[in-house]
Design goal:
The chain is an alpha/beta fold and 654 residues long. The chain has 19 helices and 26 strands. It has three domains: 248 residues, Aminohydrolase, N-terminal nucleophile (Ntn) domain (Glutamine Phosphoribosylpyrophosphate, subunit 1, domain 1, 4-Layer Sandwich), CATH 3.60.20; 194 residues, 3-Layer(aba) Sandwich (Rossmann fold), CATH 3.40.50.10490; 162 residues, Glucose-6-phosphate isomerase like protein, domain 1 (Rossmann fold, 3-Layer(aba) Sandwich), CATH 3.40.50. α8 runs antiparallel to α15, α10 packs antiparallel against α17 and α14 packs antiparallel against α15. The protein starts with 25 loop residues before the first helix and ends in an 18-residue tail after the last helix. The structure holds 5-amino-5-deoxy-1-O-phosphono-D-mannitol (M6R). The site of 5-amino-5-deoxy-1-O-phosphono-D-mannitol (M6R) has 16 residues, from α10 and α17.
Length: 654
């Protein structure tokens, strides 16, 4: 163990007899519509502060994780449990607490929820109660076998208020508490019975000053304070108060009091933990005067790339100490790379495929994590699996990484979140240093992921001797010039904004790209779908004539990412021909082209300019106007760009 050792102890059971449970309700026992949790934000606190303030502040920073209902439970200074929960955004709960304040208390838990099935209602919001209201519990994840557990509890006469799997955990915990009289022991007795993914936190009125939690396949981080301790789904929950944190491992139970933190495995055996320092300030997770997190994060892209490169280019050489466990011989022996990721992260992988193959001459395949695991992929010790995840918690990617390791592949994680689960499950991690990304739509993490992957590609090329020193130096210089060039593109944001406002009534937009422009076309379409709820498709421009061109009708807006005329001799003219083809059929063409490219002018209705860059680096610039376009168009439609409907920031179930 490195760093400060936490005080650890074996958890002992206390037995006390407590009154019996409630009676079954007809409504609950007949219910068939179950609400399943998908992804939520969790906060816990014990200390001298008024826990409600800590919980509401933490929930505000975690609201990106889920925003269809919220709730808190506080053990007040009289030792009573007080709860409040409401469907809707966190502000609805805040308003409710304004109208009906709850008493001061130093111990509490709070929750923001995102549900997949069943309406987000007050009743289904967390916390849920057990032990006749003496115990409150919150949950992130899915308890897959909750139905059978519920039947067991119903048969014993327990009652349920909601349709959630979470309430089953609360009632089960309450039952065990009545047997053991000790919250830690009660947790230990129930957690092994759950199948699926969960982070659970609970408080019991008989043990004020204590919050107990457990996790499996779902995140939980401890914040270590002086005379106070915190729990959170991620460090944003408590970074305002402390930057010392500990990530809880798989199948572990944690108990915090004001002065002590204990971590055990599910059998109660003490676990060694390794504290780390959070690398960013609380202000990084605040809007800081911007109208939205997304607008702020788009503007932070130059720093996201620069910070990801910082300290990793030394004397003109790539230097990635995190990869020391991968010796040069091992990197030379790799005969294939498989990249696994979802959504925007997968598009970053697609961009990097072109660069890594060109530089290091290793075949790279990019696969969606949720497809990868179910097709019996061919993996061996010569396969390197690189996962990409901003949150480090995407369940599909986590499961794919675990599967790859089981199959004998070596794994590297590209991740933006310290202490997250995917890096912990990988052989090595290269962190992107984009800072906290709060808006659901991924922007600055995307460019930082490409920067980290490019560093890796250049490192691999050097080790394998596939690029000369001169060529390596040239590519590194290009990479280091990216932040300034992104700044230039951001300077054109106003023009893109005008275009978006002018197109606010558009019902469908197409995106075309070729080579590295193709994943950017896909990313442009994804941004527009998720933010502006507009039908959007991205295509490889060469594919147009194989079907998609049938979609073109007069007035159809089409964004075209035009490759540099200074790149491949054939690519630029081919894309210009594509533009002519769609223009001839009435398309309204918006070209994203480098400065000075005059060939597009006769055929494009609008041209958005990006600075000159080597072809492989154009994606880092071309994506920016597309992000801004989607954001502005969504705002023109009056939509919430930080929290689009039906989405959550990280998807922590499969
Ligand atoms: O946290 P991750 O990078 O693993 O998330 C992957 C996707 O869920 C994510 O990129 C998603 O597609 C974004 N909402 C896109 O903006």
């Amino acid at each position: 163990m490195r760093g400060r050792m936490l005080r650890l102890k074996h958890l002992s059971s206390l037995v006390s007899g407590l009154p019996g449970a409630g009676r079954p309700s007809a409504a609950a026992s007949q219910s068939t519509a179950y609400t399943i949790e998908r992804m939520c934000g969790i906060v816990g606190y014990v200390g001298e502060r008024n826990s409600l303030d800590v919980l509401m502040g933490g929930l505000r920073r975690l609201e990106y994780r889920g925003y269809d209902s919220a709730g808190v439970a506080v053990i007040d200074d009289e030792g009573e449990i007080e709860t409040a929960k409401r469907a809707g955004k966190l502000q609805v709960l805040a308003d409710e607490l304004e109208r009906h304040p709850i008493h001061r208390g130093g111990t509490g838990i709070g929750h923001t929820r995102w549900a997949t099935h069943g309406g987000p209602t007050d009743r289904n919001a967390h916390p849920h109660l057990g032990d006749d209201g003496r115990l409150a519990l919150i949950h992130n994840g899915i308890i897959e076998n909750f139905s059978e557990l519920k039947d067991e509890l119903l048969a014993e006469g327990f009652a349920f208020e909601s349709e959630t799997d979470t309430e089953v955990a609360a009632v089960l915990l309450g039952r065990e508490y009545r047997r053991t009289g000790d919250l830690r022991s009660a947790f230990q007795a129930i957690v092994s019975r759950f199948e699926g993914a969960f982070t659970l936190l609970a408080v019991h009125r008989n043990e004020p000053g204590l919050v107990v939690g457990a996790r499996r396949n779902s995140p939980l981080v401890i914040g270590l304070g002086e005379g106070e301790n915190f729990l959170g789904s991620d460090v944003a929950a408590f970074v305002e108060f402390t930057k010392r944190a500990v990530a809880i491992g798989q199948d572990q139970i944690v108990a915090i009091t004001a002065d002590e933190v204990t971590v055990t495995d599910f059998d109660g055996e003490p676990v060694e933990v390794e504290p780390f320092e959070v690398a960013w300030d609380a202000s990084a997770a605040e809007k800081g005067g911007w109208s939205s997190f997304m607008r702020k994060e788009v503007s932070e892209q130059p720093e996201a790339v620069a910070n990801t490169l910082l300290g990793r280019v030394v004397d003109g050489q790539v230097h990635i100490p995190e990869l020391e466990s991968f010796g040069d011989d091992e990197l030379r022996a790799i005969h294939r790379i498989t990249v696994i990721a979802c959504g925007t992260a997968a598009y970053a992988g697609m961009v990097a495929k072109y660069a890594i193959e060109q530089w290091a001459r290793v075949p790279v395949e990019v696969e969606l994590s949720h497809e990868f695991r179910y097709r019996e992929p061919v993996l061996d010790e010569g396969t390197l699996v690189i996962s990409i995840s901003q949150s480090g918690e995407t369940m599909d990617t986590l499961m794919a990484v675990k599967y790859a390791r089981e199959m004998g592949a070596r794994t590297i994680s590209i991740c933006n979140t310290q202490g997250a689960t995917i890096p912990r499950e990988s052989d090595a991690v290269v962190y992107t240093h984009a800072g906290p990304e709060v808006a659901v739509a991924s922007t600055k993490a995307f460019v930082a992921q490409i920067a980290a992957l490019y560093l890796f590609g250049l490192h691999l090329a050097r080790v394998r001797g596939t690029l000369s020193e001169t060529e390596l130096g040239k590519q590194l210089a290009e990479l280091q010039s990216v932040p300034e060039k992104i700044r230039t593109v951001l300077g054109e944001a106003e023009h893109v904004g005008e275009l978006a406002h002018w197109m606010a009534d558009t019902r469908s937009v197409l995106f075309l790209g070729r080579h590295v422009g193709y994943p950017i076309a896909l990313e442009g379409a994804l941004k527009l779908k998720e933010l502006a709820y507009i039908h959007a498709e991205g295509f490889a421009a060469g594919e147009l004539k194989h079907g998609p061109i049938a979609l073109i009708e007069p007035g159809q807006p089409v964004f075209v990412i035009v490759p540099s005329p200074r790149g491949s001799a054939t690519l630029h003219p081919k894309v210009v021909s594509n533009i002519q083809e769609i223009r001839a059929r009435g398309a309204r063409v918006i070209a994203i082209a480098e400065e000075g490219d005059a060939a597009v002018l006769p055929f494009a209705d609008e041209v958005l300019r990006i600075p000159l860059a080597a072809p492989l680096f154009e994606p880092l610039l071309a994506v920016v106007p597309l992000q801004i376009f989607a954001m502005e168009l969504a705002q023109a439609k009056g939509l919430d760009v930080d929290q689009p409907r039906n989405l959550a920031k990280s998807v922590t179930v499969e």
